[in-house]
Queue: 4 jobs
Job 1
Amino acid sequence: MADFHQNGIITTLHNLNQRPLEAMEDELRSFSKTRPMTLVLPSLYSELEGPALGNIVNELSKVDYLSEIVIGLDQATEEQYKKALEFFQPLNQKFKVLWNDGPRLRAIDAKLQAEGLAPMEAGKGRNVWYCLGYVLASDSAKSVALHDCDILTYDRSLLARLIYPVANPAFNYEFCKGFYARVANDKIHGRVSRLLVTPLIRALKKTLGQSDYLDYIDSFRYPLAGEFSFRTDVINDIRIPSDWGLEIGVLSELNRNYANNRLCQADIAETYDHKHQELSAEDAAKGLSKMSIDISKALFRKLATNGVVFNTETFRSIKATYFRIALDFIETYYNDAMMNGLKLDIHAEEKAVEMFAKNILTAGKNFLDNPMEKPFIPSWNRVTSAMPDVLGDIKAAVEADMKSYL
């Protein structure tokens, strides 16, 4: 059972009573009559062949309060797209699969590229952005949930708890971030959140001084969670990063657009395990190494927009402060693990911290060397202003693909 403590400036919705799932789903069915709900699933084709997605589809087939499921399919050939349509057939809801690498959506992407409005790089951010464009085009949802497709411990209660805060018409929340304990197989996971984000935020506070933005990010129990929900009007004016800074970037955009009392976080799972990224200490373009650089840059960019001035010496101070704080956290996590009978490899934790410290400096250098870098994909408001027909084109392309191959 979770505690009831409200830490920070964002409302935390706990799992205090182990409420029966059926009771929550009854309410969600009632909400769906006036507040239709859609689920977005950004997926790689390889995840269809993995151990998690089959169970996710099986669990979702038992959900009857969703009006639609929108699946963004990346890295799929024509034959793989056809297999994906068959794979998702067990879903009992209306579903749409965006074949992001198909000729129809690629043609739309080329038009957007010509106007400087398309995502600059492939990845989850690009996938999510096109899925949200389709949600706007479909105009059939007032509340949307999004979660990853590699969750090994998935059951449908995760979705119910994730979407409830934005689906309940009696609540005033525009956005909900999911959180959970990253404990599985007798180990504490979540290295990037534990060993990079939290100590880096604390280091930035110590180095730069008081910051409402840093207090805001520090209020989220698991800021890198890939699970969040929102009311549909959030989509129009949000700018999504195309790199690993997606989750931090989304939180930053919500901080810019909404008052804190319109945002919340919810405990959505007792256990959570998914595909783990390699550390990739020798290759800054892969794994947790690239992730740590992108996330650090996302934080630096947001602070710069708030008026913080960075230079090389600032980043050296941040790195040194971070390193000391992160090492102290390792001892804290080790003691927590021991008390709960879990395993924690101190050597592996310190190797991760050493790499993250190095990458904080790399991210700082990249930030200073590329002041005109544009990591954000334009908002849909901007895109539809420049190309008024683009949402209709996306919807028509998705429906034509499915009609041709299903």
Job 2
Amino acid sequence: MSIKSLVLGAVASAACLFVSAVPSIAETITVTDIAGRSVQVEKDPKRIVLGEGRMIYSLALLDKENPFERVVGWKDDLIKYDPDAFRKYAQKFPKAYDIQNLGSPYSGEYSLETVIGLDTQLLILNLGNLMKAQESGIIAKLEKAGIPVVFVDFRQRPTQNTVPSLQMLGRIFDKRDRADEFVDFYVKNMSLIYARTETLKDEDKPVVFIERAAGYNPDKCCGTFGSANLGRLVDLAGGINWGTRKFPGFGGKVNPESIFVDDPDVIIGTGANWSEAKPDTAAVLFGYEAGEAETQQRLANLAGRKGWGALSAVKNGRFHSIYHQFYNSPYHFVAMQAFAKWMHPDLFADLDPHATFDELHDRFLPIDNSGLFWATLK
């Protein structure tokens, strides 16, 4: 071998060693979150913390192969308040059991040291807690530690903020095509309703009362939604949300007497499997493990509360209940289709929310559809 070849080989080897010794520089992008904040984040972060465990509903759409792969910490609300979903996911992805429970990001017991110690690259919070986050100082403290914070929203203004929330997450996780595919599916299913209800006259729209977390506390009634969240879905699906007339904001507490006086045309309660967090709950335990017989029994118990049997909705077979967690996920278009079907059965005779929910699972989620998520008292 010539001296020239030896020299060139040595130079090439040295160059390879140098390149391998230099750490790769992560790509940083700037996004505008749902709070309107411009935030610099590392693209495709591998270690994130969720302000709420139920954000997994959104991550599952983007990280279908393993929604828990990049999650190192969260709040345990998914485990407590939607245990059916947690077990369904954990059976397929056992890593879910290893995620550290950090509690509420807004409590005095929340450990920023733990968040930092987990080598967190991003913290995701809900828009509804923006003020709490600002007051607690968590945003400034984490950003000082080099951990960016972004806000998403599937709860305060779901019809307004679901699409930009998912598009932002798609950019951050380098899953833009996946996000766009779901957004197309979302818009298509929402538009199926808009196209038919926009010409309805007010006199053709039923008045709908939504009982939020119906029966969660057996001896207390009632909470409802105003013009936001599920209340907004009722209005868009061709109804008149009772709470929109009563509350200017997200919702509030209701005296049952006002419901009895107004006698709404349709009543829709929300429920989920809260029996493990609150064993005495009288709620309808919707979820991936729910069954028809117990669902009907619990619906009958709610309709049988003092004074409720005299309501038109109960007498006329328009007493319904639906999965509470639709109120905080990008799947709320399924609830909206169920609402439209209940309010205008003839107008939406061809609409099948069950088929829509099946397609959602088949195309976008890593788990199959099972259990029960809405029902009408028979």
Job 3
Amino acid sequence: MFTEMSLSAWSTGVRSKLSLPLRVELWNGEHVDLSSDPPRVTIRVPRPASLRYLLSPSLYKLGSAYVEGALEIRGHAADMIRIGSELAAAKGEGRRRPNPLRLLSLHTRKKDAEAIRYHYDVSNDFYAAWLDPNLVYSCAYFEHGDEDLASAQLNKIDHILRKIDVRPGQRLLDIGCGWGALAMRAAQQFGARSVGITLSENQAQLARERVAQAGLDRQVEIRLQDYRDIDGQFDRITSVGMFEHVGVQHLPDYFTKIGALLAPGGVVMNHGITTTDVDARATPYGGGAFIDQYVFPHGELAHLSTVIKAMQQGGLEVRDVENLRRHYARTCAMWTENFESRFEAIGRLTDARRLRIWHVYLAGCAYGFAHDWISLYQIVAGKAGEDPAQIPWSRRYMYP
């Protein structure tokens, strides 16, 4: 039975190691402060049984308790994540653990479609409330660090399209096209003929509407389609924020499929999140377990070395690699700020449970990228054994 005495012993132990701007409020009206500074986060424990989440804390336990209503937590999400991580570290909960998803391999067409729809088919209005106007849901690119989100997202799209040297008339495939921003930009600014695919019905519907509104029907096609079912040849292929859903064991097959779709002399770019743990264990403090359960079912992160090996196994030659970890930390921080500034309005677009999930998820991602738990790499590749004559000798063309 957890009691106020248990909490007293716990708070004494925490204060001997840390000074946290945290207040714990009990069901009986009493409270405990873990610092002499004003509290930035308040955790209300509504019943004695809920103390167990605090006495042995991890990001998974605290996040789950918040989502399910076992604890009431008030404060900015960035502070909540930071304080939760420090509590877990003080209790020795930071060790990375094996990721059980590596053994499950549940990546059938049906399972993948269900996972994508769970995450993306909340509603288009939900995402529009905190993303940029183009609804770009991936790492932005900050040339100077002071750009607004909308500018940084266009920078990212253009950065990708310049890297793969898109030319007028070329056929471009965007795997996991989201709401169509990259496919449309490739057509509008670079003269490409674009095909974008997604498994999200909401994304496909809005992307098609946007294509029609922009008068790009003859240049851009949006399909509701699994990547395994694509046929044809493409001069350029982009995969942005997609391969995390493929499954580590399936990455060689994924890149083999991309290689088969790539025309001779073609170029592919894979832009995706990786783990920084060489054994692909879950992120520290249970953050990965929280995302697995509540945010991205069946998502898996590979280490960069695994990705490069899988690309080579798939018949591709890696030609350029760029780390954008700090760019994604900033992107997620900006998403978090947008989310919190429109918290009440977003709450009217979804249920309270999902609202709490996203509240801590976005801030948790910002913290994870900032602390090198996870990373983001853009990898440019072509068919192995080919002379990459279409790509300029110098990387200068990427940075006009």
Job 4
Amino acid sequence: MMNSTGLSGLLLLLLLLLFNNGESQAIIKTLPGYSGTLPFKLETGYIGVGENEEVQLFYYFFESEGNPEMDPLLLWMSCGPGCSGLFSIAYDIGPFTFDVENFDGSLPSIILNPHSWTKVANIIFIDEPVGTGFSYANTLQGYNSSDIKSAKDIFTFLRKWLLNHPMFIKHRLYIAGESYGGKLVPMVAMEIVRGNEAGLQPQMFLQGYIIGNGLTDPNIDFNARIPYAHRMALISDEYFEFAKISCAGKYHNHDPNNQQCTYALQRIKKCLSRINEVQILDPSCANMAPKPNDFGWDQTFLKDNSVDHLVLPSAKQECQIQDLVVSDEWANDQTVQEALYIRKGTISRWTTCNKGISYEYNVESTLEYHKILIKKGYRALIFNGDHDMAAPYMGPLEWIPTLNLTIDDDWRPWLVNGQVAGYTEKYMKNDFDLTFATIKGAGHTASSYKPKECLAMLDRWLSRRPL
């Protein structure tokens, strides 16, 4: 008689045979722009989701450069919606980036990131939703997506990916993302919880989730922009107090018939019109970059305002727009697409962030997801660059207390190499713990500004050590 272990293995094999149609994966040992063999293990591939697998989601998988057999598995979702996983790889937490400084219009050179999160974790970067990066659909209808559909598609993707990579099924699993991707993080985590409770195979070893400068509830996160601007001395006490009284503290989606509130916000808007929202210390990049319309900067003021609400980080060069030009040149190069095993004819032109995706924003707040995950005992790391005005750190500091947690470690500085890297506070409830951290001096996508500090933060948190 076959034991339970044997039955489980047979079931996984049958599921693998059932679900691997239309999927592909390849080990990438060299990349155009890098001389020699890559010093990390990279795999790319497609996994089909949706009815008849009409949606083909593209991914990049990097094995940990530390101990891949023991290190956890992270599924990472980029900003957007519509920003490629390559964006997070090259400009944020991945093992390589591009030599922007010496870019001359030819094929960009690749340089290594010594502070990649792949130093301590296996990471899957996914091009989602469909229409992002190299992901595509076989039908026009397949290109329609939404918050709810994205979460379900990503869950299906991960389930199939694990079936194709059974050696990672028992790894500690964390769902992670930043900016708008942070909104999907608890939604995908909930899909995993429901799947595990329903007995779906494989059972995923979910441990918790990670959100960086993420969106949770626009009525909280976006509303925090005006108080943040005041706290950072970008607007005067007089302007702030007038707006606070006139708008009754409600700046996001304010009543357009409230003339006093409108006037107060117009004065504030003028003060902030030359500020780079994603890193207030960086130069203003007005009218120079893509402007994804999901991050609601216009709703903080008026519908016709022209203030950038850029979701992308600004770059190490002035305005960092050059960075995005470099990734566009690299990813659209025919030799690069051949090296990544991109299916020919599936996309017309690759873009860092696709503003033209068909996407429905049908989940406004994810607070209820957080509350359910708390009750079930999953861990959480919430971090924010403290110079980001697009998704300011004051947002989480407002919504975290609504979770009815107990402070376990009071607000204090956390250090890297003896220097203050930011401030942190830890909360507890039964088996659940939530760590909140600021990254001092960082903007949106904090690792692009403070890579060493962010890697130290991740390593400590994954190892269950205090920041």
